[in-house]
C-alpha cells in the first residue's frame, strides 16, 4: 500500500489534478435523465425506477424462500417475511418520492445498486462465493476439501483492487480533483463498515447488505461529527473506537456461542 501510495505522489508530483471533463464528473455527481417527463412536479422516471426496484426486492425474496423450501431447509415465518418486505418496499418508495421531488435518481445510486445485486449473487449463488466463505472461515479445511485457497485469496485481493479503483474514480469525479493525499484513511472506514455490518474479523461470516448498512452508519457518523464541529483528529479517534467496539462484540459473541456449544456437548 505504501509503495503504490508513494508512486501516486511521484506521478502527480505531490500536487492535485483537477478540471475533469463534464462527462466524467457527471458519472458520480449526475442524475438519471428524466425519460418519462414530469407530472405534478414529480420526476416520473425516478418513480418508475423505485417501483421496479421494489418489485425486484419482492421477487428476489420470494425466490430465495422457494429455493430454501425446495432444499427442505428452515424458512422464516411468512408473517415475518411480509413485514420485512413491507418495510423494505416502504423505505424504497419513500426514497423514490424524495428523488422524484428533486433532481431524480443519482447515477451513483444506480451504480451502487448494480454492485449490490452482482456481488450478492456471487456471494450467495455461485461456487466462487462459497469458496470465498470457506477460505475465510477455515483456509486449511477448505484446502483439504479441494478449494484452491491461494487462487481464491488472489482473486479476492484483485477484486478489491478493482473496487478501490472504482471508488477512487467516483471520489475524484465528485470533487472534480484528484490528490494522492485525498482521504488516506478510507481503508479504516471500509474495515469499520464491514465489521459493523456483521463481517467477522476472523473471516467466513458477513453479507453484502450488512456491509452497505455499515457503510451508511459510518457515513452518518462522519457527517454527524462534522456537523457538531469536531475536528478530523477526533473523528478518526471515534472511528477507531467504533472498530474496536465492533471487533470486541464479535469476539465476545463467538466466545459465548463456543462455550454454550461445549456445554451442550
3D structure, described in words:
The protein has 265 residues and is mostly helical. The protein has three domains: 27-103, no CATH class; 106-179; 185-265, no CATH class. 74% of the residues lie in helices and 3% in strands. A hairpin with a 2-residue loop joins strand 2 and strand 3 (42-43). Helix 2 packs across helix 8 (149-175).
Structure keywords:
about 75% helix, two-stranded antiparallel sheet, 3 domains, 11 helices, single chain, about 260 residues, mainly alpha
As a whole number of angstroms, the C-alpha radius of gyration is 22 Å
Q: Which H/E pattern describes the elements?
A: HEHEEHHHHHHEHHH
Provide the residue-averaged pLDDT.
85
Strand content: under 5%
Helix content: over 70%
Count the beta strands: 4
Shape: globular
Main structural class: mainly alpha
Report, as a whole number of angstroms, the end-to-end distance: 45 Å
How many distinct helices? 11
Instruction: Count structural domains.
Output: 3
Q: Flag low-confidence runs.
A: none
Amino acid at each position: 500500500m505504501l509503495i503504490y501510495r508513494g508512486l501516486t505522489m511521484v506521478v502527480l508530483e505531490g500536487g492535485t489534478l483537477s478540471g475533469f471533463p463534464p462527462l466524467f464528473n457527471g458519472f458520480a455527481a449526475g442524475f438519471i435523465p428524466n425519460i418519462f417527463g414530469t407530472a405534478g412536479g414529480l420526476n416520473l422516471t425516478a418513480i418508475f425506477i423505485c417501483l421496479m426496484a421494489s418489485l425486484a426486492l419482492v421477487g428476489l425474496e420470494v425466490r430465495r424462500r422457494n429455493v430454501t423450501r425446495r432444499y427442505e431447509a428452515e424458512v422464516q415465518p411468512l408473517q415475518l417475511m411480509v413485514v420485512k418486505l413491507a418495510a423494505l418496499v416502504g423505505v424504497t418508495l419513500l426514497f423514490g418520492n424524495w428523488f422524484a421531488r428533486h433532481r431524480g435518481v443519482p447515477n451513483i445510486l444506480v451504480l451502487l445498486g448494480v454492485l449490490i445485486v452482482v456481488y450478492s449473487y456471487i456471494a450467495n449463488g455461485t461456487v466462487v462465493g462459497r469458496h470465498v466463505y470457506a477460505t475465510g472461515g477455515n483456509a486449511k479445511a477448505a484446502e483439504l476439501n479441494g478449494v484452491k485457497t491461494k487462487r481464491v485469496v488472489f482473486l479476492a485481493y484483485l477484486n478489491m483492487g478493482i473496487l478501490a479503483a472504482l471508488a477512487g474514480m467516483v471520489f475524484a469525479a465528485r470533487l472534480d480533483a484528484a490528490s494522492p493525499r485525498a482521504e488516506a484513511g478510507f481503508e479504516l472506514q471500509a474495515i469499520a463498515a464491514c465489521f459493523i455490518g456483521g463481517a467477522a474479523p476472523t473471516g467466513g461470516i458477513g453479507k453484502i447488505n450488512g456491509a452497505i448498512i455499515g457503510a451508511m452508519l459510518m457515513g452518518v457518523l462522519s457527517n454527524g461529527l462534522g456537523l457538531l464541529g469536531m475536528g478530523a483528529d477526533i473523528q478518526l479517534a471515534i472511528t477507531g473506537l467504533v472498530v474496536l467496539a465492533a471487533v470486541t462484540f464479535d469476539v465476545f459473541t463467538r466466545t459465548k456461542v463456543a462455550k454454550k456449544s461445549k456445554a451442550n456437548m
